[in-house]
Design a protein that fits this description.
It is built from 7 helices and no strands. By secondary structure, it is mainly α. Helix 3 packs antiparallel against helix 4, helix 3 crosses helix 7 and helix 5 runs antiparallel to helix 6.
């Protein structure tokens, strides 16, 4: 069975592991995830942030799940814009949020706003919780 075919079962198993180990962590992640989904970032950009965090943190479950979600969205309207959000996410991670003025300007030049920059930070935090928790309970 392929990884994408098996995703619902893998996701359910991960949720069950986390719920048993720490229902508070699961609850916090679900709430943060809902808030992140309501941001002004477009769906392709949100999934790019999530995939960037998941790949960096080596959460294979999240990578598989969010690659499938990205594929379901269809082709990205602007690949360069997604490259910019990926680069900005990596720089925010590497600098613990202390991106340079030039890095912020490059992000904005790609059509994003300062609000979007903070939404990227929200996505980083949300999916750091998820990826770390998944790895800790051996779900990833």
């Amino acid at each position: 069975m392929s990884a994408t075919t098996d995703l619902p079962a893998r996701t359910a198993a991960a949720v069950a592991l986390l719920k048993e180990a720490s229902p508070e962590t699961l609850d916090a992640f679900l709430k943060l995830s809902a808030v992140f989904e309501a941001t002004t970032l477009d769906p392709h950009s949100r999934e790019t942030v999530i995939l960037t965090v998941a790949e960096r943190n080596q959460c294979h479950l999240c990578v598989d799940m969010h690659e499938a979600k990205m594929a379901a969205l269809g082709p990205a309207p602007d690949a360069e814009r997604l490259a910019a959000v990926r680069a900005f996410t990596l720089r925010a991670l590497a600098s613990s949020g202390a991106v340079s003025d030039e890095e912020l300007a490059a992000f904005e030049k790609a059509g994003y706003t300062r609000r979007n920059a903070l939404e990227v930070v929200l996505g980083i935090g949300t999916y750091t919780v998820s990826t770390f928790a998944n790895r800790l309970v051996r779900a990833a």
